[in-house]
């Protein structure tokens, strides 16, 4: 199976946290739905970097978010867009 490409669109997050996000996505890539993947990513970030994280995973979505400084990542994993941010 070919590994899906990662493409960072926007980041206000340390490289270490970005690497964790990528590892988490790869770890949960077999999630059954986009919702399941978003839940898995959110829970993992809540555990590793303290609550409260939010995550959206999908092929098409729009958003307007507020986030804690240096705690936001928007990237593509294959055809899926993933938006991850800490919201207080």
UniProtKB/TrEMBL annotation:
Pfam families in the record: Dynein_light
GO annotation, biological process: microtubule-based process; mRNA transport; protein transport
GO function terms (MF aspect): dynein intermediate chain binding
Name of the protein in its database record: Dynein light chain
Family assignment from sequence similarity: Belongs to the dynein light chain family.
Gene Ontology terms: cellular component: cytoplasmic dynein complex; microtubule; nucleus
Compartmental location: Cytoplasm, Cytoskeleton; Nucleus
Coiled-coil annotated spans: none
Keyword terms: Cytoplasm, Cytoskeleton, Dynein, Microtubule, Motor protein, mRNA transport, Nucleus, Protein transport, Transport
Keyword Hydrolase: no
UniProt keyword Nucleus, yes or no: yes
